[in-house]
Fold:
Amino acid sequence: MWGINTSAIPEARQSLIDSLITYSFDRAAAGYSNCTIKLSAKTKALLTEEEIAQITAKGFTIA
Amino acid sequence: MITSNFTVRVLQPSEGNFLTQSEDVSIEFRIITDKVYLGVNASESDWKEITSEEAQKFEKEREEFDKEMQKK
Structure:
């Protein structure tokens, strides 16, 4: 499950944040249309409100 | 001091229902979910509410599609 740290993948959550926020392309700033990202309910639950706001501000809908 | 304001538009269906795209999409791209966080330029009208029966129908269609894809 994406973003859930395990003993095998202790940096899974950071990977999630890096992929969706830190290093994601800002579609909104570039004038691109919105893009939808499908996440499992468990992965969505890992994101804080602030993180979700940062992702959606870049033009990504989280479904 | 830094102050930040975040606004997120969240869509949630009525109890027992789900959300899916409003447009007619291929079953392989059909999303069925219980919560949508809208992107900054997205519209609420991009999504519609469906019943659990409709959701199950889509899931069954997707299972059949996946089986067909595995045969290829």
User: Anything to note?
Assistant: Residues 8 and 40 of chain B are 8 Å apart (CA to CA).
